[in-house]
């Protein structure tokens, strides 16, 4: 990124003014005097909203999470709220997770809202992100904020904005809010709180949320008393809600006590990310010790879940997000079909980088499958944009799922309950979660996915990611593993190009920096820079037939080999 030393220095010197506290000014001066590289990293840009809001490393600077960057965002949001609802009593709900400074930053945000005469409902202690989404609607708020950095490393924190429907903000609204933020200066932030406008919330909202989770995620499964669950919160917020929801639903829950205490250092894991098998090491060990049927771990803000079940040989394996999404969606479709609720105006939802098997499921049940960009804000937008349609459920490959529309974001509380219901019912019927998954491959086609995520930190990393995307666009691959590329979708230019005929079509989904290749044999490869982390992600999907459950291991090996050949051929590293 081209920014001069003088521009960086000018950005930093603004933080030596009277609008900033003594501690901040001292640290900035020290960076100016003795650490030019760190100064550059902290002031070469402003943090931006990505797919999950604003997320970054904590510390002093415009490219960091701190009371001033969050204060400026909140002041801009206050101004936008007043313009959007000029005749309303304005209310916001605020939640925060287990991360360092989440509680103090949440109070800073609450103070700015209250200083601007906006009523604040602030959770008294850490709570799951999906409960914040629920609270926005439940309390009749125009807006909601959650302080979280999801599964990022301990030095990160973040800020997500929700609107009246409980969903995250989407274009063009997010752009209008950013314009409002950019129109003000740090000196415009009003930190002089009206404490009388801040109300602490806890048990009443908890009980309402628990009741709603039980109503949407419980299906009176058989065999709950014979079904053992090992659950880990990975030092996060889910410990406040999930065990209680499972117990009230009638399940036998064994908690990984070493990871039950919220801790922003996440001391027992390399990363608090349920996508990573390492994060569930303690839970898997406990499962084998007590012969548990299922392991579930949630990320720090409890919007994503990792599920491990026993395979055909009785070994615990971690399923990927596509697999759990398929099982949850199929189960919900089966329930709706059983209750004669499928009338032709229902839909399920997924994302452009998730498994194409979601569309196959929708067709099999006569239900539309809507596909949007990565991030549950787009699924929430679908629900809002199509009020005449009933939303059944939906998810994305990155271990998120949403059951019904009472929460308008991925929800590991209700999804955890649903996963347990599915597995308990399967076991009581002399099957298993895993066997039923394989049978769904037999019935609807076998789709095998793999994700490669490359971390590229700092300014040089951002440039490297940018170059990779340019190369894929300007020098498109023509053949992949012997199969010709037949279609390339470029969501940045909103064009889908038929590589055989040269014909182009316009993509109606909003613009995003995503590129997808499709081959004649059904292979799908997507490239997408992360909106919240210094990463570029490559999503691989291959498909074929699985003739019988007994053929799974052989067929899976063939598919794994195919994906490995593709990765080697494309040389993504």
TrEMBL record:
The keyword Cell inner membrane does not apply. Residues 48-187, 208-308, 320-441 form the Alpha-D-phosphohexomutase alpha/beta/alpha domain. CDD domains: PGM2. Pfam families: PGM_PMM_I, PGM_PMM_II, PGM_PMM_III. The keyword Isomerase applies. Keywords: Isomerase, Magnesium, Metal-binding, Phosphoprotein. Its cofactor is Mg(2+). Gene3D superfamilies: Alpha-D-Glucose-1,6-Bisphosphate, subunit A, domain 3. Belongs to the phosphohexose mutase family. This is Phospho-sugar mutase. It comes from Zhouia spongiae.
